[in-house]
Specification:
Distance between the termini: 156 Å
CATH class of the largest domain: Mainly Beta
Helix content: 10-25%
Pfam families: S1
CATH topology of the largest domain: OB fold (Dihydrolipoamide Acetyltransferase, E2P)
Number of domains: 4
Structural class: alpha+beta
Largest sheet: 5 strands, mixed, barrel
Family: Belongs to the bacterial ribosomal protein bS1 family.
Order of helices and strands: HEEEEEHEEEEEHEEEEEEEEEEHH
Number of helices: 5
Number of strands: 20
CATH superfamily of the largest domain: Nucleic acid-binding proteins
Keywords: Ribonucleoprotein, Ribosomal protein
GO molecular function: mRNA binding; structural constituent of ribosome
Shape: rod-shaped
Oligomer: single chain
Protein name: 30S ribosomal protein S1
CATH architecture of the largest domain: Beta Barrel
């Protein structure tokens, strides 16, 4: 009986035994043409996917399908008229994607989604013709002011809500970023040491300093540790978003806190530049701060000296601001240097041309005093 079967009967018999219309099978791509894709699905005849059955995505490029890649397809019929099995990739994708999404939701797997539109409350994307929604609050671990910046991007996300019956899929990028940061933190806490230098990013400015994120952990750089120079506001040294190198000062693993410094990355001027100064030098400086007892004068970045009220002028004054202003340029004379304690004692009055020393010097610079000059004059 089998000997009397026609080729068509034989094909139909084989097809019914192995494939049925609507079956979803996995095959290997053996050829990609402009209008179709040829797939080996283990049948004695090749499977053909017409261009119209490849994808519902209008932006899809047939060249994205590569030879030897494995894809899932749906059997549409056993013969396309030329002896090939007619297949559909887009129909298989539309069914399989829901099964895959359900597994990804249950196993908390990462999925890639390209987002295409901003909508009320968030953004939407497409995954094999399935609408994917991501709330604004889940777009990143930071607050995203402009959601448009995410449009056109393909992001790794996790499914946080899944309802197949309602065709509802909600995803989060925020969870992914937080997991990445937590992993970075674990690595950091195991490896970080006091005294080493690390790269970080300025993430926040406050009155008392700047917070710098190092491998997912935020540390504080106090105002005093931003620079060797006096700093009134952190904005004078850094801005949010700046990439900086910081010095690890203290580590508190229990509270997960870092104490950082920017100034310790560069050389301490009290150990280098101070060597060029000596007692009695007269220098140019700038008034940098007032206190009750006097004023601080910066003679170069990172090196300040103190002028006591009694060394500002010969007049009795109640406070330094009576005769000086912040930022004012003044001449100072070095009275004492203590590099170890970062202390410099200065005088403004002794550097002035009205000082007693100056007048005595000028009176005697020609070898005689004013008294000698006028001794023969009668008044």
């Amino acid at each position: 009986m089998e000997e009397n079967m026609s080729m068509k009967d034989l094909m139909d018999s084989f097809e019914l035994k192995h494939f049925h219309k609507g079956d979803i099978v996995k095959g290997k791509v053996i050829s990609v043409k402009n209008d179709e894709v040829i797939v080996n699905i283990g049948h004695f005849a090749d499977g053909v996917i017409p261009k119209s059955e490849i994808s519902n995505n209008k932006d899809f490029n047939i060249d994205d399908i590569k030879v030897d890649s494995e894809i899932y397809v749906m059997v549409l019929s056993g013969d396309d008229g030329e002896g090939n099995v007619l297949l559909s990739k887009k129909k298989a994708d539309s069914i399989k994607v829901w099964d895959d999404l359900e597994k990804d939701f249950e196993k908390e797997n990462l999925i890639k989604v390209k987002f295409s539109q901003v909508v009320k409350g968030g953004i939407v994307g497409d995954l094999n013709s399935v609408r994917i929604f991501m709330p604004a609050s889940q777009c990143a671990s930071r607050r995203v002011e402009n959601l448009e910046e995410l449009i056109g991007k393909t992001l790794d996300v996790k499914v946080i809500e899944f309802e197949k019956n309602k065709k509802k899929v909600v995803v989060s990028r925020r969870i992914v970023e937080e997991e990445i940061k937590n992993k970075e933190k674990q690595v950091l806490w195991k490896s970080i040491k006091v005294g080493e230098k690390r790269r970080g990013k300025v993430v926040k400015l406050v009155k008392f300093g700047a917070f710098v994120e190092v491998s997912g952990v935020q540390g504080l750089v106090h105002l005093n540790d931003l620079s060797w120079s006096r700093v009134n506001k952190p904005e004078e040294v850094v801005n949010v978003g700046d990439e900086v190198e910081v010095y690890i000062q203290e580590i508190d693993m229990d509270k997960e806190r870092l104490s950082l410094s920017l100034k310790d990355v560069v050389k301490n001027p009290w150990h280098t530049s101070i060597k060029k100064y000596k007692i009695n030098d007269i220098l140019d400086g700038e008034v940098s701060k007032f206190i009750k007892a006097g004023a601080f004068i910066e003679i170069e970045p990172g090196i300040e000296g103190f002028v006591h009220l009694s060394e500002i002028c010969y007049d009795n004054i109640a406070k330094a601001s009576d005769v000086l202003q912040l930022g004012q340029k003044v001449k100072v004379k070095i009275l004492d240097i203590n590099a170890d304690e970062h202390k410099l004692s200065l005088s403004i009055k002794d550097a002035s041309e009205k000082s007693k020393e100056y007048l005595e010097y000028n009176d005697n610079e020609e070898g005689f005093s004013l008294g000698d000059l006028f001794k023969d004059f009668k008044f």
